[in-house]
Specification:
- This protein is mainly α and 110 residues long.
- The relative contact order is 0.04.
Length: 110
């Protein structure tokens, strides 16, 4: 019993630390600042686009999009994605089967 209490206490401590970290990041405005940076960049790109159109330059959307997206995939995340898709497929089949059986029991077969 002592081991279970120790594990539960450690889990609660970790959850509390995560909560405090998220609360601090929210209260300091970190997320808002990151969002502001993205919108400021977008506003700059819109101004640049409008100037290029006024000057009669040949414009392409690709020139004004900021491609800062990163690919975080690796073997572990790819494997996790495959496993989750299989779980989703089998769960969906199981749920459809259960509800199909229940609907057959509920409806009148006259």
């Amino acid at each position: 019993m002592k081991k279970a209490n120790k594990i539960a206490r450690n889990i609660l401590i970790i959850l509390f630390i995560l909560f405090i970290a998220l609360y601090i990041s929210q209260s300091t405005g970190y997320y808002d600042y990151e969002t502001y940076k993205k919108t400021a960049l977008t506003k700059e790109q819109i101004k640049k686009f409008e100037e290029d159109v006024k000057n009669g330059k040949n414009v392409s959307v690709k020139d004004y999009l900021d491609d800062t997206s990163r690919d975080y995939s690796n073997k572990l995340s790819d494997t996790g994605l495959k496993v989750s898709k299989k779980i989703e497929r089998y769960s969906k089949k199981a749920i459809e089967t259960v509800f199909g059986a229940l609907s057959g029991l509920v409806t009148d077969n006259e």
